Amino acid sequence: MTGETKWGCTHNERQPVSSTCAAIWAAPACLPRVSSIQLWWATRVHSPHHSLWSLQWPSTRLSANISPRFPGSQPFGSVPLTPVVSQPTVLQPYGPPPTSAQVTAQLAGMQISGAVAPALPPVGLGYGSPASLASASGSFPNPGLYGSYPQGQAPPLSQAQGHLGAQPPQRSAPPQASTFTSPASGGPRMPSMTGPFLPGQGFGGPSLSQPNHVSSPPPQALPPGTQMTGPPGPPPPMHSSQQPGYQLQQNGSFGPARGPQPNYGSPYPGAPTFGSQPGPPQPLPPKRLDPDAIPSPIQVIEDDRNNRGSEPFVTGVRGQVPPLVTTNFLVKDQGNASPRYIRCTSYNIPCTSDMAKQAQVPLAAVIKPLARLPPEEVSPYVVDHGESGPLRCNRCKAYMCPFMQFIEGGRRFQCCFCSCINDVPPQYFQHLDHTGKRVDAYDRPELSLGSYEFLATVDYCKNNKFPSPPAFIFMIDVSYNAIRSGLVRLLCEELKSLLDFLPREGGTEESAIRVGFVTYNKVLHFYNVKSSLAQPQMMVVSDVADMFVPLLDGFLVNVSESRAVITSLLDQIPEMFADTRETETVFAPVIQAGMEALKAAECAGKLFLFHTSLPIAEAPGKLKNRDDRKLINTDKEKTLFQPQTGAYQTLAKECVAQGCCVDLFLFPNQYVDVATLSVVPQLTGGSVYKYACFQVENDQERFLSDLRRDVQKVVGFDAVMRVRTSTGIRAVDFFGAFYMSNTTDVELAGLDGDKTVTVEFKHDDRLNEESGALLQCALLYTSCAGQRRLRIHNLALNCCTQLADLYRNCETDTLINYMAKFAYRGVLNSPVKTVRDTLITQCAQILACYRKNCASPSSAGQLILPECMKLLPVYLNCVLKSDVLQPGAEVTTDDRAYVRQLVTSMDVAETNVFFYPRLLPLTKSPIESATEPPAVRASEERLSNGDIYLLENGLNLFLWVGASVQQGVVQSLFNVSSFSQITSGLSVLPVLDNPLSKKVRGLIDSLRAQRSRYMKLIVVKQEDKLEMLFKHFLVEDKSLSGGASYVDFLCHMHKEIRQLLS
């Protein structure tokens, strides 16, 4: 709809408020012109799990093309009943939402204040194409890209969280839901403003359908623009003498019938009014949804922490939904893999493919095979079966696990994946107890735990030969940019000490990893650092088109043996190239050289590349500058994410075959084509780090912290991963940083504890509710000590024949992780708009299916969300507004490509905070408190100019300082006397000896320790130019790039759901 405030309704029918574990919301329906919206009514509804306040509109008077019908109703004695006065609607253009002060809803007092003048229309919201239809009056501009919902106006919601009242026992079905009702269809409606009642705004009782209700016939339809005030006929009788309160009026409200009120004009200028004096139009207060009434991520996270953070999560029960990733909990492995290793989008899988298609919920698992565990939890036990190796099924090759069924006294076992009967080898035989379990089940990790490791035999090794320990090769760009910025000197100084901290196995004193060094610009320099040499030797390879390694002996060395020579080399490198004027660099030949060196040494390993510029020197893999922002929002935008040459895919394939993983550290001052340079790290299981416009004084701490962590972390080399499933489902799609040469094996030259592989499953047969579904992830890899191992993770899921069971066992955080990766891969081949529309459609289908099949019948104006998925709209909107799918003007092409490849292998906890950042107020909690302050919602409305806030998203860390912060706080934190003296953009807080300074610096250190990458601090002052960057992360608000606010997106999602249902 355009130009006027229109609210639809369901032919003047109001429904009783649904009480199925639901919080109730409202969204306007799309119907012909409504000539007047007359009043509010308030109810307090008690439903299972919460006491629910709802503010509801009565029926609206419709124009000539719909004949109103009036439902019956019955009063609620608990609500104060106020005389009713009708009030016309006045057309107003869509304006920006009122401030939080204007929107405060005082439910206890039910007060509504005077009107606010309409504001100018906002810019479009970024969904679909702008409508160009004229408004009904012909005088209002296009309100934006949401057809039916004015900006900032939405279905009012009241929610199960934080409300008062009794909590009766839960009904068994349908599953818990959050429900929201439209003002047009008679649901709860939050008052827009506080203050005394306006004339014509009263409260009535709730409407409950009564089949035996007798009402007067509907009045004649009125011409468009006509206002109906007062009852046109005699009021209907009350239902029962026992019902207190006023009788029902024609408009469905309670209270004494009132005549027309003078000085209330009609909604349209010039339209007749019956029985009232004409007067100037009186605008209604803007109808805006109270943000506190819609599902809050902060509240859901807090509730989960309170409910599930104190008890250990025991994995013995099939199909348990684990606590949220934001909850700190202890895991006890009793037969299923810990959620730190595997998280699923749903822990209850539909039995049939038809049911899965109907629900549209993706069935996926986010697997983190080498995840690091907290100190209180035990790493997987290593099982050594000797030369015979691990026991497997002869048919499907699944590994022995707790779900295998031993039969015939323990002499045979039936595979739980393919049902094949296998003989038990004599050396593995054991008797069964009276329950059919082996008597040694709890002595064997593979029979009692969800995760464990097997030592692999020589049959699992390349060329039937045990591998050598891996090697690290440091490859340093020594072109003009790298030298001038101070990067080379900083790096060489750091490597001297860092080489003492290479990863090592268990209790070994020193690492088995060997190291080598290469420098490069247009040519490559190899260094012989053999321990017997007095000084390192340099060998130059200038023929970069045909790369070879000029030396074998002395290139890869043991650090402790060659310590003196390595230190001498690292001292000399900055001096050797101090006067260089060479600005051009090569890139592909550098990777080729590292791979050839590992091949010659017959070992796997990792290349650490430190690179500064676009490789434009004549060489294989030469690139050109193709950065073109004009392609954004065109069909050619996808080319910005694609590599500009196929040479790097070929190179990556060779690296994977050799077990050569590549970690890339980029230091660009301008465009370097991250989309192309990141191909090899992406396909080899490596990482990309980016430090734009690197300056030693500003970026040193971040770079060195990332480098230390990257060098020290435990990595599995030359890895192959396969996911097996029980009959009925199979793995069909994979997302992450890896290479696949066939449809089943995920090949990773390297895999660290931060990387995930996301796997999607589809049905290929019917599943059985009794037996459930099983997943087994098997990772074959070489450890840092050169040991070949198999890590196994098992997980049993439930299966269901009822959609309600599916929706009751979903996990939204994992769902969003999958959907983001699906979308971020989609932009490689489809226009970004198509990808965004696909996400919105899928989300709408998921929620519409729930509404249609699981929710109790209710008004079409209600938006009903499954309890487990009530945060799906807010999180999905964050994905849609992300830089990859909706870039702002300041976001570079390289930034988008960088974030795209980064998210591809993120785990669920990382995507959760990346898409919905944490905002922590620092001065509200007691200074002596050791715990993190409670977070607030990521919206500008939550900021107080008298407070200081920390915002983090896993990559960025902001300290926002309000303009009215107390002078004592400023002094304690920044060591200056006033707000104006704080340096904007400051990246290090002064170390001061006071409780507040210690607390804030401690909190920053704690946040950094939780994340896989160092977050550089940026201090942002209120109303400073840097504040725009900070506000980009307030994801519940409308973004500058056109992304919708949470409220607006909720409206849009409701509209999509209603279209699907109709």
From TrEMBL:
Occurrences of domain Sec23/Sec24 beta-sandwich (ranges): 716-799
Segments forming domain Gelsolin-like: 931-1003
UniProt entry keywords in alphabetical sequence: Cytoplasmic vesicle, Protein transport, Transport
Domain Sec23/Sec24 helical: residue ranges: 812-911
Domain Zinc finger Sec23/Sec24-type: 390-428
Domain of life: Eukaryota
Membrane topology: Peripheral membrane protein
Domain Sec23/Sec24 trunk: 467-711
Principal cellular location given in the protein's record: cytoplasm
A Pfam family that the UniProt record links to this protein: zf-Sec23_Sec24
UniProt xrefs under Gene3D superfamilies: beta-sandwich domain of Sec23/24, Sec23/Sec24 helical domain, Severin, von Willebrand factor, type A domain, Zn-finger domain of Sec23/24
Region (Disordered): 144-295
Start-end of Low complexity biased regions: 166-178, 195-211
Name of this chain's protein: Protein transport protein Sec24C isoform X4
Species this chain originates from: Vulpes vulpes
Gene (UniProt): SEC24C
